[in-house]
Amino acid sequence: MVDSSRVIHEAEAMLRRLSPEARRLAHRARQRRWRALLRRLKLIFYSVLAIMLAAGTFGLLVAPLGVEGLMLAFIAMALTAATILAWPGTPSPTPETLAKSDLALLPQRTEEWLERQRPALPAPAARLVDGIGLRLEALAPQLQTLDPREPAAIEIRKLIGEELPELIDGYRRVPEALRRESRNGMVPDRHLIEGLTVVESELGRMSEQLASGDLHKLATQGRYLELKYKGDESE
């Protein structure tokens, strides 16, 4: 007998793989991992070079290294390389760390966090997350020179550093079996999709207004997001 839930899950996974936005974001994630590996390899190269220079200097100015000295130098190089490769990388972002991230780094950190949330979301929401990821990609260079104390910067931080993670975290706290059921007049799946649609639209508006230099309008335009799942959490 065919497992219908498994078929649906595989169909959704295929849709996600075929999404151009998903492929682009996955490519960006691979690039970030590759750059991190290159940084480690570069650090290993310079560390090993420093050990070789130190050993050579000692052998020339103090005393010949001999076989034991050479062995110790090689062991030091191997241990240094292994330590650098095994050293923990940058911790995965969390809603708490997102709220405290530097404004210039916030879009990338939020994109990394969204990448980890994506598999737990329904297919329509995952596609919206892909769109939000592209919005964040466009927004990132615009925030490099924006003063974090500007009201516009505060609005951007609130949206992507607080409200967006709160929306997705609130959805994930709802038991999976209840996410398609109406509770207190609200269906969690639909509420998530509507919230993500508003977030994507807001990010597009913010990017356009940053590009036009209209910071005052960006900071003062009202936004009404229903991002709380209090009704679901209380039951």
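Second entry:
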Amino acid sequence: MEYQIKVVLVFALLSFFGIFIYFSINESGSEAFRSKTEERPSELFGPSVELHNPFIITRLRNELMHLPSENGYQLSQSDHLYDPSMGQSKAILKALDYKTRGFFIECGALDGETRSNTLYMERSLNWSGILIEGDPKNFELLKKKNRRAYSFPVCLSPFPYPEILLFEQQFNIGKITDTAKSNTVQVECYPLSYILLAVNQTSIDYFSLDVEGNELKVLKNVPWDNVDIKTLSVEFVHDKEGKVAIREYMESVGYDLIDEISRDDMLANDFIFLKR
């Protein structure tokens, strides 16, 4: 009997140390991972990063990507015919002959509802897609809307590589900035191709781009030969290189300017492009 008690005690001690070691290893692994991200190592961010590094794609897919919601919408408007866009979605749908079951990307997705260019397509025409929003506060609001789309709390990079950049939080006019302020946060930014690889999607019916000033830089990092983007709406009013530069660049990669959506209240200043 005494021998059995000793065996049980030894087994219990071994189990305790095994559990302790397991959690120590996992915690140290978590700390190492956090340290990697915080220190901006060359293998994750910066000019020296390997193009389409598999680890980065896997991390986007498993750590940053939020799956389409299976819960009911939580929107301010219950009417499924409600279109909160400022005219962009109507112009795009006209160009696409009111296509159903399309696929979109909306970068600058805000809270997922306010002036959304893709919400009507998703709710009324059974589209799916990707929502990209770099402002952490806005992204928390977006998640609560229960959109039927993949969503990423990141920015599209103005560089051909992933980078951590400062983001100025100002709800609908938030943007990447070079100046640290009380309302700036660090945000991970990825070229569009990395996001598309994470969701395994290369055919896009509509790309809505509104990033308050870096539109042309983002567009120049799109792998046009490897993706099929049929239409785009591109905000031009804040871009540092000007609207003419955006139009000329898009024409050079095979797109025609078919419309311009502008409003006196400045809630829309977008080019509408259609692939030739």
